[in-house]
Automatic annotation (TrEMBL):
Residues 1-140 form the UspA domain. It comes from Amphritea opalescens. Transmembrane segments: none annotated. Belongs to the universal stress protein A family. The lineage of its organism: Bacteria, Pseudomonadati, Pseudomonadota, Gammaproteobacteria, Oceanospirillales. It holds the Pfam family Usp. SUPFAM superfamilies: Adenine nucleotide alpha hydrolases-like. This is Universal stress protein.
Length: 146
């Protein structure tokens, strides 16, 4: 059904990636599919620390994130190809831009159960669902996971 699947990740919750990969595999319905893992680094969103920030530290973080993503979904069927992307910026903006750039069929992402803070500040998942150029599957994580 879906063959071009975008999976935005929070690398501080690597345990969620296996579940996301399993769901994406089911969405592919046994057909060849491309899974794109996306990590968005929001460290420079406001640019406050940018002039003093060591660029080599940022490059090392980028390399470590890409290496971590490459090892997360090793046990998928042979017809599922996995690529990894690292972007800087606001998470929901980068997810939407990447989905459009990749011409994604679907986005599969985690979201925690809403709490009082989500009534005042919208979540990335909410913004992605509202503006995505494709279908979006939100997998609910427990509030204690975040």
């Amino acid at each position: 059904m879906y063959n071009n699947i975008l999976i935005p990740l929070d690398l501080s919750h690597k345990e969620q990636v296996v579940e996301l990969g399993q769901i994406a595999t089911k969405l592919a319905e046994g057909k060849p599919a491309q899974l794109c893992l996306l990590y968005v680094d929001q460290s420079f969103v406001h640019g406050a620390g940018d002039p003093q920030f060591d660029k080599s530290l940022h490059q090392r973080h980028r390399k470590e994130a890409l290496e971590a993503m490459e090892t997360l979904l090793a046990d998928l069927p042979d017809n599922i190809q996995v690529t990894s992307l690292y972007r800087d910026g606001v998470a929901h903006d980068q997810i939407l831009a990447t989905a459009k750039q990749l011409n994604a069929d679907v986005i599969v992402m985690m979201a925690r159960k809403p709490g009082i803070s989500s009534y005042f500040i919208g979540s990335n998942a909410e913004r992605v669902v509202r503006h995505a150029p494709c279908s979006v599957f939100i997998i609910r994580g427990d509030a204690s996971d975040s």
